[in-house]
Amino acid sequence: MRPEENKSVLAAVFAETAKGNGRPFIDALADDVQWTIIGTTPWSRTYVGKASVINDLLRPLGQELGGASIITASKFIAEGDLVVVQATGNNVTVRGQRYENTYCWIIRMYEGKMRELTEYADTQLIESVLRDPRVA
């Protein structure tokens, strides 16, 4: 797909995450996706495969936030098969703590799906607000 097509796919996906609808985001993940969260937090690692992203990242995050995560994208930059997305979260944990992280994702697209994501975020906020996803 052309860069502008990839950008359009992600713009549509993030229009839905801004409403708290994560289904289009999950649908846009390639089966062999690799999602890397930078840093040294308990959440920081590379999640390999859609099942791992759902079970090891998104499900525990949903438990921390009590359901839907609201992410609003403000910028999209597309070049080749890469789309850079800048976004902000507007969330509260189940314990009542504000979780309003700022994100930059570098996303490699393949055939209209997200194949690789590298996430840059406020790791201090992750560390201080979110519980370790490996401890339930």
When the domains are counted, the total is 1
Q: Please tally the β strands and state the result.
A: 8
Strands ordered across the widest β-sheet? 2-1-8-7-4-3
Radius of gyration over all CA atoms, rounded: 14 Å
Walkthrough of the structure:
The protein has 4 helices and 8 strands, in the order ααββαββββββα. By secondary structure, it is of the alpha+beta class. It has a single domain, classed as Nuclear Transport Factor 2, Chain: A (Roll). The chain has a 6-stranded mixed β-sheet. The longest helix is centred in the middle third of the chain and has 16 residues. The protein is globular and about 45 Å long.
List the helices and strands and how they pair.
Layout: H1 3-17, H2 23-27, E1 29-37, E2 46-48, H3 50-65, E3 71-79, E4 82-89, E5 91-92, E6 98-99, E7 102-110, E8 113-121, H4 123-129
Parallel strand pairs: 1-8
Antiparallel strand pairs: 1-2, 3-4, 4-7, 5-6, 7-8
Task: Provide the descriptors you would attach to this structure in a database record.
single chain; alpha+beta; six-stranded mixed sheet
Short description:
With 136 residues, this protein is α+β, with helices and mostly antiparallel strands. It is 32% helix and 38% strand.
